[in-house]
Specification:
alpha/beta; D-Maltodextrin-Binding Protein, domain 2; 20% strand
């Protein structure tokens, strides 16, 4: 066999494997989204699917990557991404929104608005300094969407990491921080159980702001933060929640061999998840126990590829920080239990 023949054979093998590989974009390296992706990849392997799970910066990053030339066939995003894209002034974002399709709803993630006590409601954020999270992150998207829905315009929106944002609120260099995370978020429990007197004193000046404006319920689910979630809360605080969703673009037209292949892969993924949901709940991430595959998600069109030949649904089951640098370090290490 000639060298040219061997090289050609290796090239064909390599490109065939690339075509069979199915990219899935998720979230941060340490988050729940990427673990869900790994769980799905593990159970799909025996069905002939080679799913490559990829970390990402968040929901908007996932949408961009699915629409690019990258191998990113499907993704986990927050449910409010559809409303965010639809409100965008960018025509490209509007096009993305029209193409998105729902494979399955997953679990709820609560919106935590952590703020100085003088912030009594969302409308008190008008003209204030607000941490909205890193660009392309889920928290950033939700913060922008909520503020847009209620026509609230902060003086400054800072794209800081969440732990830094919490530290800035505690130290008084910011008024509030938006955090989207399934309750309970360990960082808050760590923070409020600290023995550091310097941090304890600052905690007396902050709280979770109630999120109960009726306008929010058009895109968000009602939820609450209670003493069952965080021991330092008295009673219950109303909030709203987004749902983590498994989504793809619409490949149902079958207009090319690529579209047909993707449609078949999505159908297989959907069937594998449904057939193995009991195993996922028993042996994988604990958040699988909150998943109802047949949950209603109004406004989200279902993916025709994923839901073709499905069995009948089962009934559910820059601000300077030199003023208090040592305090901020104390807060950050307390959040992560590194001090």
């Amino acid at each position: 066999m000639s060298l040219k023949t061997i090289v050609f054979a290796l090239f064909v093998l390599f490109t065939t494997n690339l075509q069979a590989e199915m990219g899935m974009v998720t979230g941060s390296d340490t988050g729940t989204y990427i673990q869900f992706g790994k769980d799905i990849a593990a159970i799909s392997h025996h069905s002939g699917l080679n799913i490559k799970v990829k970390a990402s910066k968040g929901s908007i990053d996932n949408i961009r990557r699915m629409s690019s030339k990258e191998n990113a066939a499907f993704a986990i995003v927050q449910s409010d991404v559809l409303g965010f894209l639809s409100k965008s002034k960018e025509s490209l974002f509007n096009q993305h929104a029209k193409r998105l399709r729902l494979i399955y709803p997953f679990y709820l993630e609560e919106v935590h608005l952590f703020a100085r006590k003088e912030i009594k409601s969302l409308h008190d954020l008008q003209g204030k300094t607000v941490i909205v999270g890193p660009k392309s992150s889920g928290s950033n998207m939700t913060a922008w969407n909520i503020l847009k829905m209620l026509n609230i315009e902060p003086a400054k929106r800072l794209n800081k990491q969440i732990d830094e944002g919490i530290a800035m609120v505690l130290s008084g260099t910011a008024d509030a921080v938006f955090i989207v995370a399934g309750k309970p978020r360990n960082g808050f429990s760590n923070l409020f159980s600290t023995s550091k007197s310097s941090v304890k004193k600052l905690l007396q000046q902050v709280h979770f702001v109630p999120l109960d404006d009726p306008a929010l319920f058009a895109e968000y689910e009602k939820s609450n933060l209670s003493d069952q979630d965080y021991s330092f809360i008295e009673g219950s605080i109303p909030t709203v929640a987004v749902k983590a969703l498994l989504v793809s673009y619409d490949f149902s037209s079958g207009r090319s061999a690529y579209y047909k292949k993707r449609c078949h892969q999505l159908r297989t993924v959907s069937q594998v998840i449904r057939q193995n949901i009991a195993t996922l709940r028993k042996d994988h991430h604990k958040k699988w126990n909150q998943v109802n595959l047949d949950g209603d998600m109004s406004g989200w069109p279902k993916d025709k590829c994923a839901h073709s030949h499905q069995p009948a649904p089962q009934k559910s089951q820059k601000i300077k920080q030199e003023n208090k640098p040592s305090i901020i370090l104390d807060i950050k290490c307390t959040l992560n239990r590194t001090c």
